[in-house]
Every structure is written in structure tokens, then in C-alpha cells.
Design brief:
Blueprint (H helix, E strand, L loop, with lengths): L1 H29 L1 H9 L1 H55 L9 H23 L2 H21 L8 H22 L4 H10 L1
Helix pairs in contact: 1-3, 3-4, 3-5, 3-6, 4-5, 5-6
Length: 196
């Protein structure tokens, strides 16, 4: 959230500086009294010009660096999200193995759910700054809540309604992770899909 606010402030500052610069250039070209005032106040003109050039250069460099960081992090964020998706699939598979009478791999299910919760907590800070990954993270949190709600019921049974709800949650999670799959090169994507 803080990075979104910072990005909005940075863009607003860049737009403001650009408008001031355009207004000054326009006034200098078309208003004779404006030209004369700046001619008589050369030190003020020099200081104002230097500050505007510095502001424009700083904002441009800041934007270039921010874009480079987003591009460099895009792949690592995608891989982290895909690993989380693989764990969510394993937990989902375990929950779907619960029979109508409540039988199922209880120990393994508990371990998979614990791993999913741990991975969610670990991955959240890295996924939060990327808008696509953040949407996936939100869907993964909803998915985890659905899986936990069904898996930790006292009777331990999985009804048809529960199965339909979990399959719907998994399809939403799959749709949310698809844009992240496209960031990963084909050879690595096949490896990551095999892990999930």
C-alpha cells in the first residue's frame, strides 16, 4: 500500500514539474514582460532553471530505476507465486481425498495445510507490491480460508456442496495465477508446473 502511495506521489510530482516547466517556457516565448522580468533577475532565473532541471532529471531517473526494479522482480515474484500455487494444489488435493465418512490422510492433510499457511505468510510481503501478484495473493488467502473451513470441521466429512465450493475456489485461484505463468520462460514453466 505504501509503495502505491509513493508511486502516486512521484507521478503527481512529475506531472506538476512538467506543467510548471511548460508554463515557464510558454510565458517566456509569448509574454514580453515575462521575458524582461527574467532578463533583469538573472540570478533568480538561473536558480529556478537549475532547480527545474534537477527536478526533471531526478524524476526521470527515479522512474527509470523503479521500472527496472519492477522488471527485475517480475520473474522472482512470479516464481514465488507459482510455488505457493503448487502448495495450494497439494493442500486442495489432500482435502478432496476426504471421503463422505470423514476418512482421509489426516496427518498429511494437517501437514499440507500448515505448509500452505506458512507459505502464505512468507510470500505475502514479496507478492504485495506487484498488482497482478497481489490479486493472486488475495485469491490464495480466500482459497486457504475455504480449504481450512472445510478441512477442519469436527465431523471431517466432505459433502458434494463442499466439493463444488472447493473446485470453484481452485478454478478462481488457477485463473489468478495464469498471468504469472506467462512471465516464466517456457523451460522453467514446465518444471514449475510439474512441481504443482
Amino acid at each position: 500500500m505504501l509503495s502505491l502511495v509513493y508511486e502516486a506521489v512521484r507521478r503527481f510530482a512529475a506531472a506538476t514539474v512538467a506543467m510548471i516547466l511548460l508554463a515557464l517556457v510558454g510565458c517566456d516565448l509569448w509574454i514580453r514582460s515575462f521575458q524582461l522580468w527574467w532578463d533583469r533577475h538573472s540570478l533568480t532565473c538561473s536558480v529556478a532553471t537549475s532547480l527545474l532541471v534537477l527536478a526533471v532529471a531526478g524524476l526521470i531517473v527515479d522512474e527509470v530505476v523503479a521500472r527496472r526494479q519492477r522488471r527485475e522482480r517480475a520473474l522472482s515474484v512470479a516464481v514465488q507465486a507459482l510455488i505457493l500455487y503448487g502448495q495450494a494444489r497439494r493442500a486442495w488435493n489432500m482435502v478432496m481425498m476426504i471421503g463422505d465418512a470423514g476418512e482421509g490422510p489426516a496427518g498429511t492433510l494437517t501437514e499440507e495445510l500448515g505448509n500452505l499457511a506458512s507459505m502464505l505468510l512468507t510470500a505475502a510481503p514479496g507478492l504485495f507490491d506487484d498488482p497482478v501478484a497481489r490479486r493472486f495473493l488475495e485469491e490464495a488467502q480466500r482459497f486457504s480460508a475455504s480449504v481450512l473451513r472445510v478441512a477442519l470441521r469436527p465431523q471431517g466429512q466432505l459433502s458434494e456442496n463442499d466439493r463444488a465450493h472447493l473446485e470453484s475456489a481452485m478454478s478462481r485461484l488457477r485463473a489468478a495465477v495464469e498471468p504469472l505463468f506467462t512471465r516464466v520462460p517456457d523451460a522453467d514453466r514446465a518444471l514449475l508446473e510439474g512441481l504443482s
